[in-house]
């Protein structure tokens, strides 16, 4: 064996296909014929087989668990290592049994290329197609098909050609073109490590040689920048933003825009440990740390890009989704969506159809998606998310859904669905990017005021003394030395809104939102009630949220009686309560959210000098 | 070298996910080459800091040089080191002569379990690698353990696109494995690239024609025949060997590892 000593790169390859079509056998053979197995490994397995009175199979080399060997199936994905031709391969052996589809998906999701195995005697089967469909959804675009067990059909070219044609036609519908279709016998070692004489009519490479034709995608660095923020660290004097670049490049001095907050700043340094000379740039794939020239609001889940190449933002997306959950996916059920580093509650609003791997054009409408099914869906997130379409960007164009404690499904985004906030969102983005700033930023104001700006919206039916609580809250906050202001929407009616006809309630809310936006930019805690609006409170809250983004909006609901938990509210009070108590609970919430610190000692008495 | 940076970027990403999502997190450090590389990667991920405690499950049978090395690095790198021990089993005289799997279960698996119960960790970072052992080859990066510390390998959660298992029922915990994709050779290549201090007196031949390839307890770990005196020698030796890495680890014999790992062994 020629052991290649200069490893230049690393690549993950997955082996998939229908159960019993010979995936583990192919893998075992590949290792045995290239001399990559440890000494004594084959002998050890042979001894176990003899003891148990069964025929030795190469598959046993990687089916590690007792149960796997006893049943002759692969239960879970194994990673095995293999170096050849200057590359270190991690070969992932995925189970073919339908029951273990989630394990197959876990294996294939890590791969850059796939070997798809089809049994020559059985031909194209259910899982051959389902695996093909899933590979295309998982982003594995490089596929080589191996038609295995050719020894069982006498190495007949016509049988091979029939399977090749059928499967190529299928992959075509998924826009996947196989690199090679190879006739082989893993058991006999035909066309595995080298091309063999049993198939004189075959002119392509062996399975081993075909691996070199899989390319490692390097074009990711040439795409527009996508840098999802993973965390913000403050271990020492540096405030470091960390995350892994999923596309593009960045360098010191570059201006970054964060979505969906629309905040912007320039890269001051790129931080790293034990790297000399210090980094000045980074590209897709790297986990980096960056400091900014301005202390702007950034948190996990936002995506950094360049100003002119921002990701999309909406609360609604259309996607193709595969479901692996223990329970079926249902509409109107709450799940957690995770896209890159963003995590947000969501629900599926529509299941458009279930995709049948055996008949890709068939349309079946369903109200739920069962385990192992693929569906075309629309979903709505609780707050706006930044994302891309899957055809444009892989990592920021896909997501998983979490049901209870587990990742239960994965999806690729096919469309942005417009939501009712889109016009306001565009207005906020354009206004923010053209905003003329002074030298004092939000962070400096917060430092001096002892709190971040925020909007406190009191909602609920009339006659619950919301106005009284609002006034009380303002009084208490100001007495504590906070910068708080009560803005009643009615105060805009005869001034700013004097020109508005009664028939334009949207514009009333928009102008109100813009005024609140201005006040929060001065660092204020703005307190408002919502009764003066003719629109429903939910809609008012959403519009204000969109216009003041990313300043937090705290909603406080008051009603005579509370009927169950109040969705989308931060605090709920029943009845006229003890207002002192309500006020202190609101202040506690502000502190718990990290929006307000305790008043620093010695700062309660303000010093004036004239 | 590019492949080492690829591995590093992935491991750093996993460590940062763990730090962000687990309130009560700790890392196991056995002073061996793998968990020391893992510790180094934590310093990479957190810019020279190690923002969680390091746990050492001390069986009392470790090679003395390992303990000296542990205490020296803990001081130099300002580590929060927590040493746990199954004192009850030791008091009752547990040792390898009562059976290797029994001894490992009592002193390591149980020792770890006691430490987890006492401190209530919800995330434990470990330096296990896929190529060490065929059950480790089937691990997830974020792998749940139930209330009894057991691993249900028949029903592992899906793991895709760097979206890991971050939530779990009360009373259970998650094992985090940032080194799954690293091979033994990668570990040594990285030690060389980053100039990481390692236990050279054990891992390299000091003139006796022997060195340790894998470190564990003194009675159950045996050196291999080797004249490798530098990290480069080790890398060349490993490229040409066909002997399994853990061949010198007695507890691996038969189905030892599958049973041990199912019950909560690392």
Would you write up a description of this structure?
The complex is a heterodimer of chains A (610) and B (266). Chain A is α/β, with parallel strands linked by helices and 610 residues long. Chain A is 24% helix and 29% strand. In chain A, the strands form 6 sheets. Chain A has a 7-stranded antiparallel sheet with strand order 7-15-11-12-14-9-8, with no helix packed on it. A 6-stranded mixed sheet of chain A has the order 2-3-1-4-5-6, sandwiched between helices. In chain A, helix 11 (505-521) crosses helix 12. The termini of chain A are far apart. Chain B has 266 residues and is α/β, with parallel strands linked by helices. Helix content of chain B is 39%, strand content 10%. Chain B contains 9 helices and 8 strands. In chain B, the strands form 2 sheets. Chain B has a 6-stranded mixed sheet. In chain B, strands 7-8 form a two-stranded antiparallel ribbon. The longest helix of chain B is centred in the first third of the chain and has 20 residues, at 2-21. The radius of gyration of chain B is 18 Å and the shape is globular. The two termini of chain B are 29 Å apart.
User: How can the largest sheet of chain B be summarized?
Assistant: 6 strands, mixed
The spatial strand order of the largest sheet of chain B comes to: 3-2-1-4-6-5
Identify the strand order in the major beta sheet of chain A.
Answer: 7-15-11-12-14-9-8
End-to-end Cα distance of chain A: 88 Å
């Amino acid at each position: 064996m020629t052991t290649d000593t200069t490893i230049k790169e690393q690549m993950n390859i997955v082996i998939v296909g229908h159960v019993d079509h010979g995936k583990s056998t192919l893998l075992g053979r590949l290792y045995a014929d290239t001399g990559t197995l440890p000494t004594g490994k084959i002998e050890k397995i042979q001894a176990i087989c003899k003891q148990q009175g069964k025929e030795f199979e190469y598959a046993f080399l990687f089916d590690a668990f007792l149960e796997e060997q006893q049943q002759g199936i692969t239960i879970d994905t194994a990673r095995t290592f293999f170096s050849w031709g200057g590359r270190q391969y991690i070969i992932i052996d995925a189970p073919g049994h339908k029951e273990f589809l989630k394990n197959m998906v876990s294996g294939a999701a890590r791969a850059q290329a796939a070997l798809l195995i089809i049994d020559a005697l059985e031909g194209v089967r259910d899982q051959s197609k389902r695996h093909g469909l899933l590979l295309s959804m998982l982003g594995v675009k490089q596929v080589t098909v191996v038609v295995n067990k050719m020894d069982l059909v006498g190495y007949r070219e016509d049988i091979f050609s029939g399977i090749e044609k059928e499967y190529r036609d299928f992959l075509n519908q998924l826009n996947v073109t196989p690199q090679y279709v190879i006739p082989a016998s893993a058991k006999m070692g035909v066309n595995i490590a080298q091309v063999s004489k049993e198939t004189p009519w075959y002119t392509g490479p062996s399975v081993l040689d075909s691996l070199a034709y899989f390319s490692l995608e390097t074009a990711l660095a040439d795409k527009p920048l996508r840098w999802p923020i993973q965390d913000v660290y403050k271990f020492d004097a540096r405030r470091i933003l960390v995350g892994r670049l999923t596309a593009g490049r960045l360098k010191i001095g570059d201006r970054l825009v964060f979505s969906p907050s629309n905040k912007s700043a320039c890269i001051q340094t790129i931080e790293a440990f034990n790297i000399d000379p210090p980094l000045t740039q980074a590209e897709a794939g790297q986990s980096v740390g960056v400091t900014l020239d301005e202390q702007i609001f950034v948190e996990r889940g936002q995506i950094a890009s360049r100003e002119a190449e921002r990701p999309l933002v909406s609360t609604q997306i259309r996607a193709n989704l595969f479901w692996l959950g223990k329970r079926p996916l249902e509409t109107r059920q709450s799940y957690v969506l995770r896209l890159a580093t963003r995590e947000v509650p969501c629900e599926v609003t529509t299941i458009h159809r279930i995709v049948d791997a055996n008949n890709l054009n068939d349309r079946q409408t369903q109200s739920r998606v069962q385990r192992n099914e693929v569906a075309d869906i629309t979903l709505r997130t609780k707050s706006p998310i930044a994302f891309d379409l899957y055809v444009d960007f892989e990592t920021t164009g896909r997501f998983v859904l979490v049901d209870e404690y587990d990742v239960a499904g994965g999806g690729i985004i096919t469309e942005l669905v417009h939501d009712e906030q889109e016009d306001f969102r565009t207005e906020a983005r354009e206004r923010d990017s053209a905003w003329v700033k002074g030298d004092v930023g939000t962070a400096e104001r917060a430092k001096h005021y002892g709190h971040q700006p925020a909007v406190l919206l009191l909602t609920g039916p009339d006659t619950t003394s919301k106005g009284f609580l609002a006034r009380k809250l303002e009084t208490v906050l100001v007495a504590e030395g906070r910068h708080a202001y009560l803005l009643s929407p009615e105060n805009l009616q005869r001034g700013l809104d004097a020109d508005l006809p009664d028939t334009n309630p949207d514009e009333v809310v928009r102008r109100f939102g813009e005024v609140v936006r201005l006040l929060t930019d001065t660092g204020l805690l703005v307190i408002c009630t919502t009764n003066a609006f003719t629109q429903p409170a939910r809609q008012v809250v959403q519009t204000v949220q969109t216009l003041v983004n990313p300043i937090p909006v705290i909603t406080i609901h008051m009603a005579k009686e509370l009927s169950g938990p109040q969705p989308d509210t931060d605090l709920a009070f029943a009845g006229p309560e003890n207002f002192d108590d309500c006020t202190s609970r609101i202040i506690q919430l502000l502190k718990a959210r990290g929006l307000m610190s305790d008043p620093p000692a010695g700062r309660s008495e303000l010093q004036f000098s004239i | 070298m590019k492949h080492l940076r690829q591995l590093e970027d992935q491991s750093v990403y996993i460590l940062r996910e763990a730090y962000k999502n687990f309130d009560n997190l700790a890392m196991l450090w056995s002073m061996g080459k793998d968990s020391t590389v893992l510790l180094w990667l934590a310093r990479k991920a957190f810019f020279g800091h190690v923002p969680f405690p390091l746990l050492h499950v001390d069986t009392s049978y470790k090679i003395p040089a390992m303990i000296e090395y542990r205490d020296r690095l803990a001081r130099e790198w300002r580590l929060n080191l927590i040493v746990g021990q199954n004192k009850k089993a030791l008091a009752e005289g547990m040792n390898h002569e009562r059976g290797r799997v029994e001894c490992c279960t009592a002193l390591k698996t149980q020792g770890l379990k006691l430490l987890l119960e006492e401190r209530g960790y919800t995330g434990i970072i470990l330096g296990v690698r896929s190529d060490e052992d065929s059950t480790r080859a089937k691990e997830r990066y974020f792998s749940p353990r139930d209330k009894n510390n057991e691993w249900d390998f028949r029903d592992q959660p899906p793991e895709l696109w760097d979206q890991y298992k971050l939530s779990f029922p009360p009373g259970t915990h998650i094992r985090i494995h940032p080194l799954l994709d690293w091979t033994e050779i990668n570990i040594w290549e990285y030690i060389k690239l980053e100039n990481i201090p390692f236990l050279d007196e054990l891992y390299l031949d000091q003139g006796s024609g022997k060195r340790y390839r894998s470190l564990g307890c003194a009675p159950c770990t045996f050196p291999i025949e080797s004249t490798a005196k530098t990290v480069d020698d080790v890398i060349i030796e490993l490229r040409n060997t066909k002997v399994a890495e853990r061949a010198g680890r007695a507890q691996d014999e038969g189905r030892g590892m599958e049973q041990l790992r199912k019950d909560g062994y690392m």
